[in-house]
TrEMBL record:
Keywords annotated in UniProt: ATP-binding, Calcium, Cell membrane, Endosome, GTP-binding, Membrane, Metal-binding, Nucleotide-binding, Phosphoprotein
Domain of life: Eukaryota
Taxonomic source organism: Salmo salar
Entry's localization field: Cell membrane; Endosome membrane
Protein name stated in the entry: EH domain-containing protein 4
Amino acid sequence: MFSWVNNEQGGRNKDGEMYQTVTEGLQQLYTKKILPLEETYLFHDFHSPALEAADFQSKPMVLLVGQYSTGKTTFIRYLLEQDFPGMRIGPEPTTDGFIAVMYGENEGVVPGNALVVDPKKPFRKLNAFGNSFLNRLICSQIPNQVLRGISIIDTPGILSGEKQRISRGYDFSEVLRWFGERVDRIILLFDAHKLDISDEFSEAIKAFRGQDDKIRVVLNKADQVDSQQLMRVYGALMWSLGKVINTPEVVRVYLGSFWAKPLRNTENRRLFEAETQDLFKDIQGLPRNAALRKLNDLIKRARLAKVHAYIISYLKKEMPSLFGKEKKKEELILRLPEIYTILQREHHISAGDFPNVVKMQEQLQHYDFSKFPSLKMKLIESVDKMLANKISGLMTMIRDEESKAPPALVSGGAFEGSQDGPFGQGYGEGISAGSDCDDWIVSHDKHKYDEIFYSLNPINGKISGVNAKKEMMSSRLPNTVLGKIWKLADCDKDGMLDDEEFALAQHLIKVKLEGYELPTELPQHLVPPAHRKNEVADILYNHDAD
């Protein structure tokens, strides 16, 4: 799909390394530069398992997370437009495990224990979470067009209370963290009637710390409330999210009803359709951004591996050679926030690059600091050179290759034909209104516009820009918008408007006031009849001239 270099260079970069694809280039950079640093300083024990080939080669993945009965499984059914093996839908907590919905020529289910030994699937490292988790993990395979572009991960519905966390038998938050580091999009689903964020849901969202750019929020079943209630529900949701997602940026929230059933309240239909199309565009573009996403995640991982190496080597350096090791270890764990500050100043590292201090303190309790490795600057320098030189070249090449052969958008299922035909978003509305009619749509209200036109004292059937300006400014639209409307309406470019051009200008003002966008060029169906070219007459004229 992507080539590292062109044929004239013989397929080698300036260091003589051979890469056939960007995916292969990322994999080799990780294996040769980052992995040695991770293995030396026990990175995999503290943070995340080592990456494998399948992690680089897998399709983009979408992770769905939410409380029970918020419509996660129904959302997948809505996108695929077909049932999938293992699917259960109901008002009670039905999905009691993780379901990886992936493409397969033959429909079927792969159990968790078999899934984690498949080298072609990016789930091998999930083996570390044990049988309690693997017994609740399946891969559902179906030959669906949507799944040719993406894979979708369904998760158990989240309940409230301490019992729910204990009875799972595995660390739910850690599993979500593992998926969050590897997926391309994280969708948090909320029900219009379930806005409370339980303790476990709060922990689940916090597990995605550092993955904020991947998170999107869907307020599902929004048709079950009216406009006034929806406004209150949206405000309450943003307030709840603000307490859990500690970022100054506002997370993107999509409103809608994501199932193939009639809307209960149709007053917000246009809003729901626009929001659905925005969400579809976001998901459809995932294959095109997959290479950049993997590159971005690799950079984040490299930065964390460097910081981890500095922390481990500092703890080693501070340990006594003979006596008082346990006492010193306890002291260093208590001083870890202070150590973070020292390392920030010494190595010019941002505070955001450091791991969670409380979690790090808990993990360090189980290790003998005297057995930690000392700082090896060659490993650090190797990663620094990679970040400074190799990554920038890879980014440039991704852009070049994608411009030549961009990956296909996600298609099929609910994505198929969502923009085409009379039920596409905006069809027959705004500027496109009247596009399939024989008569000029402006003529429906022209009698009203003519009254205004003739009150402006036209001379020789036209009004000047000065007179037109006074009337057009009564719309209170900005001058930049009115200037665009003037250019579109002045079809003969004579700086004046006749009755049809003035009616067109009033129609465009009406379209803009209704909330629709203006075109850059006037569509053919809006051109006033007196200004339309007579193609037959033009042909006869050109023939006579010849």
